[in-house]
Amino acid sequence: MLTLFTYNWQVREEWFEWAAELSEEELLKDRTGGPGSILFTLYHVADAEYSWIRAVYGLPDKPVSFESVRSLDMVRTLSDKWNREVRNLLESGVPDLEGTVTAEWAPVPYRKGDVLRHIIAHEIHHMGQLSVWAREIGHKPVSANVIGRELPAIPGNRSSSELK
After folding, report:
1. Share of the chain above pLDDT 70, in %
2. 8 lies in which domain range?
């Protein structure tokens, strides 16, 4: 699972680099088919990941409002900060995937494994929305390709050098 989290983090970083080429007006323009603007979408995926991971690990949510970080630099800095914490938690060991979690904002219990898979799929879904918006404004989107990325090996699988 860490492989797919790492993939999402790489793609998110590339979207931040891509977004740096846009005007503030373009970043904040309300768009159809997603949670709002390009900037809010980048904030939203980082926020959702951070909040759900904290819940999975039994930690309280630490919400930060979008309005308090309403610039690309601030959202990117917050995403980087949250990413360090999420990475440390995931690298410390994955919790019992069959165990349940009840988040403060979602009082129904969910299996931890389902929540972790949801976090991964959620970000991929929103990166697809960013790709559509990129094309709508005449820009090439970030590649969603997994092949060719430096990603951690999946435990139990042969390394790429063993496959040649």
Report:
1. 93
2. 2-145
